[in-house]
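Posting for a labmate who doesn't have an account.
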Amino acid sequence: MSFLEVDDLTIRFGDTLAVDRVSFAVGATERLGIIGASGSGKSVTSLAIAGLLSETATLTGSITLDGQELVGLRESEYRRLRGNRFSMIFQEPMTALDPTMRVGRQIAEVIALHAQRSGKRHTVEAELERVGIVDPARVADSYPHQLSGGQRQRALIAMALANHPDLVLCD
């Protein structure tokens, strides 16, 4: 049995077919890259796995994570999985980060929310340093617009990895 199994996944938005009968499996220690043209459904597939599709989406097929069926899961159940069992790194950091909050506070909130542990300053800086941020204290004190695109992307990666999830979805 694979850690993540997507079987016969079809996603529609009204009459628009976004994903058509996609199937794949990923073992616990494996990596999988999905390659396709813009608009081919890669991001929508990741959002479906993460339970982040809009209510207008109709989803059929099966998505299992470590044997647990995700299709049809209630939002409260998904919240318990996100950040702990899996996390997602979004493609555009400027839209994924809250522009009104300092980066360090955002990382601390992810740690506190999902790991039920404090996102202390030294923990936040250690997570930033782990992803290659040279001056983690300065980045933690910065708002997203004060950082370069690469620093924002690394901050998102730090947020996604902060609680040591079993699966990381990268858009």
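Reply:
Got it, the structure tokens are right above this. The chain has a mean pLDDT of 92.
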